[in-house]
Amino acid sequence: MDPRSAYVHIPFCHRRCFYCDFPVVPLGDRADGATSGSVAAYLRLLHQEIATSPGGPPLATVYLGGGTPSMLSSAQVAGILEVLARRFGLAPGAELSLELDPASFDEDRLAGYLAAGINRVSLGGQSFDDGVLADLGRRHRGADLREAAGWLHRARRRGALASWSLDLIQGLPRQNTANWDHQLGEAIALEPPHLSVYDLSIEPGTVFERRLARGDLALPPEDLAADLMDLTWARLTAAGYGHYEVSNYALPGHASRHNRVYWSGAGWWGFGVGATGAPRGRRRAHPRTRAGYAEWLAAQGEEPAGAEAGMPFDERLMVGLRCREGVNMDRLSRQEGLEESQLEGLRERLGAYERRGLLRVEGPRWRLADPQGLALSNGVLREMLAWWQELEREPLPAPAA
């Protein structure tokens, strides 16, 4: 089925955060995307890719991520939406999301984005604590985050903005249950319709990886990390937020439609440097540098490095189990051509989780209990990945027709 969603990557940042391994291009704290020749050159390539893509039905969701998309002017954002609309069309009521960094926009700039067609915002707050923000390498401070959230709240109250999300990170250095509880209280007080709460992940090549190797990055112990996730669930569900995916909470009617596309295994278009898409059954990872991206575009449609057919079974399984509703294992195993004995082997391997009530097997549907099972999802998923890697070394029967 042709995709009805598109992810567009804007790689530019003022600076790279210490935990970030995304394909980004730092331009300096004083850079202005509206006047940068580097940004303008990239946008020409991006427009070219979108305009020469195969096209398809009108898009129901568009997500402009990065990087820091709010380094772009409202006119530049409007230009991206226009080229998407010309090539695909935008469905009535389409969810059009833009990531904003609290230090890179003001209320007038926000009004420009909304006038351009943006109707959902993801605000990259990460923390309200100034010391933590400095440790993360962020430009903004707690006061900037609170002010930006106020602008979004007012825009939504006026009906100019349909929804917005606040991003936070848990499991950070210096974090404990007391200060994390305070952080959650601050977040709830701002009344975001959606909250994304991510665990800190130490990625290769980052400043945090180098600090951890030197022994000067004190991370919370694993048992505290689980306590933080339990506290997150308790505070947010008590405030009326539904826990619909491991890292995501939303008030009724405000779950991210775009993110659900990823978790459902449905196809989507990916545009820009480092973007990953899965159009028409083929997963494609774009080159992660601007030079590589330009060369690929000049090759007029050659398959990017890393292209593969469909979403791998283990990824479909793990993505499904991150969601509250879980995954239909009967259907998934039939699609992959797994034998019943192989599926039973996985269930036996996960027996300890099932006996503790963390993994629920309800007919064909497997799901993780909320919140305890979802809090321990990394352990379950590691077991599943090990099982799949062992299974891949065995010959599989041909998939059922």
Brief overview:
With 401 residues, the protein is an alpha/beta fold.
Radius of gyration: 21 Å
* Major beta sheet summary: 9 strands, mixed
Write the CATH fold name of the largest domain: Transcription Regulator spoIIAA
Return the CATH architecture of the largest domain: 2-Layer Sandwich
The end-to-end span amounts to: 18 Å
Number of strands: 17
Task: Bin the strand percentage.
Answer: 15-25%
Sequence stretches where pLDDT stays below 50 over 5 or more residues: 304-309, 395-401
List keywords for this structure.
401 residues, Arc Repressor Mutant, subunit A, 2 domains, three-stranded antiparallel sheet, 42% helix, 19% strand
List the helices and strands and how they pair.
Elements: E1 5-10, E2 12-13, E3 25-26, H1 37-51, E4 59-66, H2 74-87, E5 90-100, H3 107-116, E6 120-126, H4 130-136, H5 142-157, E7 163-170, H6 177-189, E8 194-199, H7 207-214, H8 222-238, E9 242-245, E10 248-250, H9 257-264, E11 269-271, E12 276-277, E13 282-285, H10 290-298, E14 308-309, H11 313-321, E15 327-328, H12 329-336, H13 340-349, H14 351-355, E16 359-362, E17 365-368, H15 372-375, H16 377-392
Parallel strand pairs: 1-4, 1-11, 2-3, 4-5, 5-6, 6-7, 7-8
Antiparallel strand pairs: 8-10, 9-10, 12-13, 13-14, 15-17, 16-17
Helix pairs in contact: 1-2, 1-10, 2-3, 6-8
